[in-house]
Automatic annotation (TrEMBL):
Residues 261-343 form the Baseplate J-like C-terminal domain. It holds the Pfam family Baseplate_J_M. Belongs to the Mu gp47/PBSX XkdT family. Residues 182-253 form the Baseplate J-like central domain. This is Putative phage Mu protein gp47-like protein.
Amino acid sequence: MYEDQTYESILARMLDRIPADLDKREGSIIYDALSPAAAELAQAYAELEVNLKLFSAQTSSGDYLELRTADYGVTRRVTTKAQRKAMFYGQNDTLLDVAIGSRFSIEQVKYATKEKIAPGQYILECEVAGSVGNQHFGTLLPIDYINGLVRAELADILIPGTDIETDDSLRQRYLQRVRQPATSGNAAQYRQWALEVSGVGDAKVFPLWAGSGSVKLVIVDAGKQPATSTLVDAVSDYIETVRPIGADVTVVSAAAKEIGVSAVVTLAAGYAIQGVIDAFRAALGSYLQDTAFTSTYISYAKVGTILLSTPGVLDYTNLTVNGGNVNVALADEEIPVLGTIGLGV
């Protein structure tokens, strides 16, 4: 908005106000007196431009974005701790009970038992908040001696740990709040309630799905993957505390639709096929996450574009997505997840 308010343009306007019969050439007393003022005014205009951008949620960031969104009750989500399922075994692979609070580690990430699910099966909570608690699977090592313990295995992610919310995510939730006001138990409010539960990545609302007063909530976890039964129960329990009287609410996980891709690729010099597969898998996974609940199909053309833009890929042939060369449709309650990736040379 103030791009034209440069030092040169401000100084020129100031000098234009000086009578022509006075010396206002560079180095003159008048020029030297006005030049610092013009520089300060140009700096003030630059800071005003920055402040205007920080005032708008569309262009704001950091603490300034939080101040803007807080006016509408939207605050940045903090980091949360992962909750995992673990199994403990004694002699002859018999399930073994351990004390609540017992601590274990895997790859320098520490967990503690929080709740017993069944004999030898427990909910573990990561001691460090964030997505680091979601990353590892396999053998757990006890930090303190546990009598009779032979083996401990870290298994399912029950409620994923989350990192601090990004500016883009916070901005999107703020825009959702102001553009689709949540009130009186409408669809927008049910989605808002679901997103208030830690570990929920998104939700889709189906009003009147089973008749008058019925509402179905389909949810995914923070990684845009199908929600575990633990997370579904957590959302269901929370909705029961806030729903309008008389509403019959059903909470379910989204159904996974595996997306498998195969193609023959031409590699650039110096690239190995496994590295290309790993890079393509990561890029495709990001695209699939972005389409969860936002698109009714997976674009065949988009998958091809992602493959062609993968580092090391010069060209490709025989591209198929789920065995065909057309878009893959998604049902109302389906989300896409990574399936088999088969790239050959």
